[in-house]
Design a protein that fits this description.
The complex is a heterodimer. Chain A is α/β, with parallel strands linked by helices. In chain A, 53% of the residues lie in helices and 12% in strands. Chain B is an alpha/beta fold. In chain B, helix 3 runs parallel beside helix 4 and helix 5 crosses helix 6. The longest helix of chain B is centred in the first third of the chain and has 29 residues. The two termini of chain B are 24 Å apart. The chains are: A alpha/beta, B alpha/beta. At the A-B interface, helix 1, helix 3, helix 5, helix 9 and helix 10 of A face helix 3, helix 4, helix 7 and helix 8 of B.
Chain lengths: 230, 236
């Protein structure tokens, strides 16, 4: 036991093999199928590559429709400091040559993947597409499998194929050599563990009121300054 | 008789570590809410806002941090706002980079563009932002700064500031910005909160090792782990 532990920590070859094996925890890709719809979400890492892939499949007519999944407008969206993902993504796809009538957008009610997949499930019930590809980053594929199986009806889940994007930010086979690789793989493992333990739990939306904070702070400042002067 | 006693004692010795680990696990499970809340709260070392020359808003969560910074500015607790700039690679994505969103949010909250100062050092992490601040403070030797960052990120920010700025860290105070829907009381309940807090704990440890003189505690830690492993393999 001790020898195995020391070998895993200290000797490069078994350590690399062990760390590479960790990827099996988070990667579980389906085969690329001919689908009616391909979806991509604001949650997925590697969005530029994702949109390029979507545009390529749409232009090659591998899929009929592209569905972008966004989240409710955020505080920065509302004050026009940022643009919602689905709007940016739609503009980018049109720039890449995808006809506007082949792009749909869904806005999920929350900012977590479970809500997003539930929104996709509703969309699929209304639009009885036969097969759907969910495109995401490779290290989130098993997480999506877990969420689909815990959130959707078995019939709808069986029509979904989860496909991973090639990783752009780091070399997946040597993920532990880069800061981005370590960060993303560790987060992916944590998210997966959480999905297994608490599958389907959602985060409440905005709980903090910026205007109220400012009002309270200004009142508190005025009171404090008056007390200091006194 | 003696043999049976020895057998029983050996069996007891073998089962004791399992019992110990099990009782720790059960205790943790029963006490999990106060323990996890305590862990979450320990990451937050934010203080009440105080008057300073500048407010420095760290990049990361532009949904709340710039709004807190703008409130401090508008209530007269700071004269100007400092914003770090991301490394050029972050501007290649089709999405808006965080530094631009933060600046636009500040302007949308009525912070004058002339009162926003962009720090020159290009950043990709907390330590880069603190280095950017240290360069700024070298040219402003008497300036005081309020640093605004997310609640769970204040401890690492304060520690990094103390490591990089040394004595000048005394001129900095730390104000915690909330994260919508995620607090120290519920972080483990959502996928996002769980990933945020656990990675923050790991990053804090990594910063401690990387920037805090790792050999001071890493060698004793490795010695203890190896000794425990040897003990376990010998007696269990």
């Amino acid at each position: 036991m001790l020898i195995i532990l020391i070998a895993l920590v200290a000797v490069p070859a078994p350590r690399s093999a062990f760390l590479r094996c960790c990827l099996f925890l988070v990667i579980s890709e389906d085969k690329l199928i001919n689908a009616d719809v391909v979806t991509f979400s604001h949650q997925s890492r590697g969005q530029t590559a994702g949109l390029n892939q979507l545009a390529q499949w749409a232009k090659q007519e591998k899929v009929n429709h592209v569905v972008l999944i966004g989240r409710p407008p955020t505080r920065t969206d509302r004050c026009q400091a940022s643009v919602p993902f689905e709007q940016l993504g739609r503009d980018q796809l049109i720039r890449l040559g995808v006809p506007p009538n082949r792009i749909d957008t869904i806005t999920s009610t929350g900012r977590d993947r479970a809500t997003e997949i539930a929104a996709l499930g509703q969309h699929l019930q209304q639009n009885t597409a036969s097969k759907v590809i969910v495109l995401t980053d490779r290290i989130s594929t098993r997480l999506y499998h877990q969420i689909c199986s815990s959130t959707l009806d078995a019939e709808i889940a069986s029509r979904i194929s989860i496909v991973g994007l090639p990783e752009q930010m780091f070399d997946l086979q040597n993920w532990w050599h880069s800061r981005a690789g370590v960060r993303n793989v560790v987060i992916a493992i944590l998210e997966l563990l959480h999905a297994y333990a608490h599958g389907g739990q959602t985060v409440p939306g905005e709980t903090w009121d910026a205007e109220q904070y400012e009002k309270d702070l200004c009142e508190w400042t005025a009171e404090t300054m008056a007390a200091d002067d006194g | 008789m003696d043999g049976r006693d020895n057998g029983g004692r050996r069996w007891l010795r073998r089962i004791m570590p399992i019992g110990f680990v099990l009782s720790i696990a059960i205790l943790f499970w029963v006490m999990r809410v106060p323990i996890l809340t305590g862990v979450g709260k320990s990451l937050n070392v934010g203080t009440l806002p105080q008057k300073s020359d500048y407010v420095f808003v760290l990049l990361g969560n532009s949904e709340t941090r710039p709004f807190i910074a703008a409130a401090l500015y508008k209530c007269g607790l700071a004269k100007q706002v400092l914003v770090a700039q991301l490394q050029p690679i972050y501007h290649l994505n089709f999405q808006q980079p965080e530094d631009i969103v933060t600046t636009d949010a500040l302007v949308a909250q009525d912070v004058l563009r002339n009162d926003i100062i962009f720090l020159e050092h290009r950043c990709a992490s907390t330590i880069d932002e603190v280095i950017a601040l240290s360069k700024f403070l070298k040219s402003h030797p008497s300036a005081s700064v309020t640093i605004v960052t997310s609640d769970f990120h204040t401890r690492r920010t304060r520690w990094t500031t103390q490591q990089v700025l040394k004595e000048a860290a005394g001129r900095c105070s730390f104000v915690a910005a909330p994260v919508d829907g995620i607090t120290a009381d519920n972080w483990w309940q959502s996928e996002e909160g769980f990933a945020l807090y656990v990675t923050e704990g790991l990053k804090l440890f990594a910063y401690f090792v990387q920037y805090g003189g790792s050999s001071r505690f890493l060698i004793p830690a490795i010695t203890i782990v190896l000794f425990s492993a040897w003990l376990a393999s010998k007696y269990w």
